[in-house]
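Render Flavodoxin in 3D.
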Amino acid sequence: MSVENGKNVLVVYYSHDESTKSIAESIAGETNADLLELKPVEKSGGRKVKYIWEGESVSMDPVPDLEPFLLDPDSYDLIFIGSPVWAMSYAPPVESFIRKTKLSNKNIALFCTHEGLMGIVFQELMSKLSENKIVGAIDFYDPIGSGVKYAANASANWARQVLKSLS
Ligand SMILES: Cc1cc2nc3c(=O)[nH]c(=O)nc-3n(C[C@H](O)[C@H](O)[C@H](O)COP(=O)(O)O)c2cc1C
């Protein structure tokens, strides 16, 4: 674990098609953070919901089991949490993360990627994480389609500001 600006920083994210991953990596690079990718465990049978977006459909348990974490999210001072928007909300693995970790008294910054229909993703996340201090929230419209470099710079600048605001 490394310390940046006096804070241990973690970037947690789920990504199905790499967009959110690209943002997570630029935030982590900028803030010298550890990265935790949320990976749902594929189970046969079980509860499944079909999430559909423009011809793409993904079947997933709304609260999927996750692969074990190799680090302890509770030991970080600042946690960036990122998700693609699915069905106007955040993706199921992020719900699993929230339930599993039951975070409180953390500085949390939220980011999401989407294709124009964000819904109330941040309001929902803020309400689920209400025992924490939300120190920032930013969304990116189709970061890969609209220019990876632009999104990487914008997310890095934002992450730097968030970190600076805590010192
Ligand atoms: C199952 C599914 C549902 C989606 N639902 C929405 C949505 O409600 N609103 C929206 O703007 N984009 C939606 N999208 C598009 C993704 O949010 C967008 O492509 C995002 O950047 C993908 O991030 P990722 O590459 O990290 O998975 C959906 C994509 C998928 C696969």
